[in-house]
């Protein structure tokens, strides 16, 4: 059997990380985030497939792919967090665990960021820890996968 795999999915505008708004989103690039998650996952024996898109339907496609190709998903859905029934339905339709991560503390920002359409169908949520939140989300995701495996065997 091959290595266990996680999907790292980043939503709209996160390709701008490190290029704009460092006060809110830090100085690290999306590539730095992907490297961080790959390193953290590799230490736990997992490989990572990483995907970023500005398009809602493409994100839906990747969530669906996880059912066959990954053990779980770490996702920053960005602005679609607050609006997307399509992403919520896609997460509901798969059996794999999904952890939602936000770089900023959305609860100290505008009220429209306080609601997540996705949190009720996710296994967990990490927010407000900057880029390091991706590390926490990845470790939490792997712990969940490993403990579910133990429960079922
Ligand atoms: O805090 C987060 O991670 C967010 O998911 C980021 C989203 C925002 O809509 C959510 O409410 C919270 C925005 C991502 C935009 O990313 C940028 C990065 C650098 C420069 C400009 C935008």
UniProtKB/TrEMBL annotation:
The keyword Thylakoid does not apply. The record marks 20 as: Transition state stabilizer. The keyword Disulfide bond does not apply. GO terms for biological process: amino acid biosynthetic process; aromatic amino acid family biosynthetic process; chorismate biosynthetic process; quinate catabolic process. Pathway: Metabolic intermediate biosynthesis; chorismate biosynthesis; chorismate from D-erythrose 4-phosphate and phosphoenolpyruvate: step 3/7. It catalyses: 3-dehydroquinate = 3-dehydroshikimate + H2O. InterPro entries: DHquinase_II, DHquinase_II_CS, DHquinase_II_sf. Substrate binds at residues 76, 82, 89, 103-104, 113. GO terms for molecular function: 3-dehydroquinate dehydratase activity. Its EC number is 4.2.1.10. It comes from the Bacteria. SUPFAM superfamilies: Type II 3-dehydroquinate dehydratase. Catalyzes a trans-dehydration via an enolate intermediate. Homododecamer. NCBIfam families: aroQ, PRK05395.1-2, PRK05395.1-3, PRK05395.1-4. Belongs to the type-II 3-dehydroquinase family. This is 3-dehydroquinate dehydratase.
């Amino acid at each position: 059997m091959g290595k266990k795999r996680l999907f790292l999915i980043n939503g709209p505008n996160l390709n701008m990380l490190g290029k704009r708004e460092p006060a809110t989103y830090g100085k690290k690039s999306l590539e730095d985030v992907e490297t961080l998650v790959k390193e953290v996952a590799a230490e736990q024996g997992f490989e990572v497939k990483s995907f970023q898109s500005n398009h809602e339907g493409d994100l839906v496609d990747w969530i669906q792919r996880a059912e066959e190709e990954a053990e779980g998903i770490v996702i920053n859905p960005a602005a679609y967090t607050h609006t997307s029934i399509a992403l919520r339905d896609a997460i509901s339709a798969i059996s794999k665990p999904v952890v939602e991560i936000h770089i900023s503390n959305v609860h100290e920002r505008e009220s429209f960021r306080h609601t997540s359409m996705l949190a009720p169908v996710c296994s967990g949520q990490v927010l407000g820890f900057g880029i390091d939140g991706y590390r926490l989300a990845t470790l939490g995701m792997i712990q969940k996968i490993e403990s579910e495996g133990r429960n079922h065997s």
